Amino acid sequence: MKGRVIKSTGSWYIVQVEGKVISARLKGKFKQDELKLTNPIAVGDWVELEKEAGQETAVISEILPRENYVIRKSTRKQHFSHIIASNLDQAILVITMKKPRTSLGFIDRFLVSTESFRIPAILVVNKMDQLEGEDEAEWLQDIHEIYEPLGYSVLEVSALMEQGLKEKFLPFIQGRSSLIAGHSGVGKSTLLNALVPEAKQDTKEISGYSAKGVHTTTFAELFSIAEGGDLIDTPGIKEFGILDVEENELSHFFPEMRKYLGQCKYNNCTHINEPGCVVLQKLEQGFIHPYRYQNYVNILHEEDSHR
Ligand SMILES: Nc1nc2c(ncn2[C@@H]2O[C@H](COP(=O)(O)OP(=O)(O)OP(=O)(O)O)[C@@H](O)[C@H]2O)c(=O)[nH]1
Ligand SMILES: [Mg+2]
Ligand SMILES: [Zn+2]
């Protein structure tokens, strides 16, 4: 039979098979492709499984080819990666203007990752009920002005007050498999609970920045929504590892630069200081946002130092 992995608890996997859930384990070792993974099976994977004789449990015999996945560098094992989730229709980045404030640098790193995985992304601004003051209004305005022209939808919601969910958010997630990502404390689980009440995910106030590495959600888990579609809740991320992007490839993952590629004088142009660079020209003319360009430069240099 065929099923979809909705949760992994160490050596056991919870698999959804025709609306029912079943515990399954892996038999033997799986040969993975070129990737070095800390988890052989990820949430979202479609698997082939067989019932164990006389038992309620099953054995996974095959992982069906992944359509796509979101991956991060392992924090524990060097040179290893961890698949956060697979077979996604879109990634939802939950952002907040305070407690914690999501930086534009973080948003851009996330979007570069999803562009490189070819997964459409949207931005959900949560905790709108807490918006106050000019500085916060400006932050919000920047988010709209920078990202919407690039094709990323920006939705404003309050998960806690259940505002903007049914009218604005639901149409985006219906009938799709969506990953919910973002810093710890932005309200990913609160958002999920509002849409899937029986999920009962733990939510918790973040206790300031001293409590580093404390995440309320510690495993990714897939939930089906009553209106159709799946949401995958994930642990908060501090940093999003960008994997194996070549220097002159990075601009492919910035939609506003992508359209000018091939027009620069040199075909290996990195758009930093090369003569005849069309990206620099468009930046000067105001067609590329200076914040986005600055983050492009930051990511380029950071990746450079990892090589
Ligand atoms: N004011 C307000 N608070 C919210 C909102 N959404 C979530 N919160 C609060 O923010 C805190 C963190 O929420 P969680 O849902 O646990 O955050 P998370 O993103 O799942 O965090 P991790 O699981 O650690 O990654 C909780 O105290 C929530 O009650 C909102 O829309 N408005
Ligand atoms: Mg959570
Ligand atoms: Zn260039």
Number of strands: 13
Q: What series of H and E elements makes up the topology?
A: EEEEEEEEHEHEHEHEEHHH
Secondary structure: helix percent? 10-25%
Q: How many angstroms does the end-to-end distance come to?
A: 44 Å
CATH superfamily of the largest domain: P-loop containing nucleotide triphosphate hydrolases
The name of the CATH topology of the largest domain is: Rossmann fold
Strand percent estimate:
15-25%
Briefly note the structural class of the backbone.
alpha/beta
**Low-pLDDT runs:** none
Helical run tally: 7
What compounds are bound to the protein?
guanosine-5'-triphosphate, magnesium ion, zinc ion
Under CATH at level 1, the class of the largest domain stands as Alpha Beta
Main sheet: strands, sense, barrel: 6 strands, mixed
Strand order of the largest sheet: 10-9-8-11-13-12
User: What would CATH call the architecture of the largest domain?
Assistant: 3-Layer(aba) Sandwich
* CA radius of gyration: 21 Å
Mean pLDDT: 90
Shape assignment: globular
Count of individual domains: 3
Please characterize this protein's 3D structure.
With 307 residues, this protein is α/β, with parallel strands linked by helices. Helices cover 24% and strands 23% of the residues. The strands form 3 sheets. Strands 10-9-8-11-13-12 form a 6-stranded mixed beta sheet, sandwiched between helices. The protein has a 5-stranded mixed β-barrel with strand order 1-2-3-5-4. A two-stranded antiparallel ribbon has the order 6-7. A hairpin with a 2-residue loop joins strand 1 and strand 2. The model has no long low-confidence stretch (mean pLDDT 90). The structure holds guanosine-5'-triphosphate, magnesium ion and zinc ion (ZN). Guanosine-5'-triphosphate (GTP) binds next to helix 4.
